[in-house]
Structure of Restriction endonuclease:
Amino acid sequence: MARRKSWMILQEITSRGLMGLLVAVAFLLTYSTTKSIVYAAVAAGFIVICFIIVHMFIRKRKEENAAGMDIADISIMEGSQFEQYLGYLFKAQGYSVEVIQAPSDEGTVLIIAKGGRKIVVQAKRHTSNIGIKTIQEAQAAIAHYGVAEAWVVTDSGFTEAADTLAKSNAVRLIPREQLMEMILELNPEAAIPPK
């Protein structure tokens, strides 16, 4: 997961660096040929606008791809991809979504909001059931992020102890079955795996 995050950071730095380089080249080239700062600034602004449009197009394509996914696709995702996918699912349900790097080495969390209510979401893609440690982390995240409640979303299930602990705290558990329901709301043609 650390390798994937490093790759994503490298892509972001490369993208911004390329934009900065193109803006500088456009500005200098235009200024050297026209001797006008106004024309040079317009050329540089054009490059920035083009980058923004391309970035919006790429984001839109990712959202369209996410809308066509099903639970089988989630099973082969890495943790960061699962977090991004959940962001798309919550956006489709009308939530605003903010991705935050967790203070520990636990990856990232989502802060979702709707109707003035903020919720911290922990995404856990596991092959086994989630235990009480995750519920304790979710409970601590409520105070840390100053939100009303915490949700834990997984593509598996929860242990009985985790379920009991979550019920006595402001932690909502969203196991595989409820996740599939969310996916079907977004993509009614999604394949439902046999039980």
Remarks:
- The mean pLDDT is 80.
- Residues 2-67 form one domain.
- Residues 68 and 188 are 9 Å apart (CA to CA).
